[in-house]
What does this fold into?
Amino acid sequence: MKKVLITGVHGFVGSNLVHALKESYNIYGLDIVSPQNDGVSNTFGWKELEKIPSVDVIIHLAGKAHDTNNTVREQDYFDINLGLTKKIFDYYLNSNATKFIFFSSVKAVADSVKGDCLSEEVEPNPSTAYGKSKQEAEKYILGQTLPKDKQVYILRPCMIHGPGNKGNLNLLYKFIKNGIPYPLGCFHNKRSMLSVENLCFIIGELLNRDIVPGAYNVADDEPLSTEEIIRIIGTGIGKKNKIWRIPKKLIQCIAFVGDILHLPLNSERLKKLTENYVVSNKKLIKALKRKLPVSAKDGLLVTIQSFEHINH
It folds into this structure.
């Protein structure tokens, strides 16, 4: 049985990966805390690298997520997203592991998409500290000389959702669940998302098969508009959708007030809810030579049903 080390094993993605892989792999964890989880043989702290048994694959998830409330110091992103990546990648280079899978982000390339979609051909030009820290981590990895027996995959996922997910989807869910009208009907957009089920499938393919190493955007096949997302949520919980088309300028003023008063709707969250951010996954699908198992709609329904389960 192959041995896999997952950093950030207790996070949202890490927990879902453990659930998906635990029957087929011997999993070890690396995190800032080390409680024992079902499916994880042992979890180590970052000062215990020398205690970790020899593994075949390292999946580096640990990082500082993008803070929509803008309360995180810029240097914190670099200390964690770049600093921890340097530490674990140096460990990988001196280990017996043959594959390294790094979770970067589409934000390492661009914070807004110009043109129809974001592909791997776009020259990286992040503008936030989060995106810049992820891009610097990518540069560090790509700047190292690899032995012939080692393969590196840089994954750039868009917004990941699934059971245990928090964030903007949860906010939309609560709006609809409580019968609150969605007020952003005047904004028309399309954005890509990624169901954690598709993500776990992709990781399984990278672990099991000889996929060409490199950097890959990771997204579901179909982008969705916010209105489509609202309709899917309504279907999932059996609630009728209420969509208000309030003028954009008024909404932007409310978001500005939200910045000052730290309300749920602020400028950063408004941007996330209404911007176009379509991500191409064509390079990944070509490399896998297989379709993703879950449609964007079906994956979203699974997430919404998990919210329902938690709230009952």
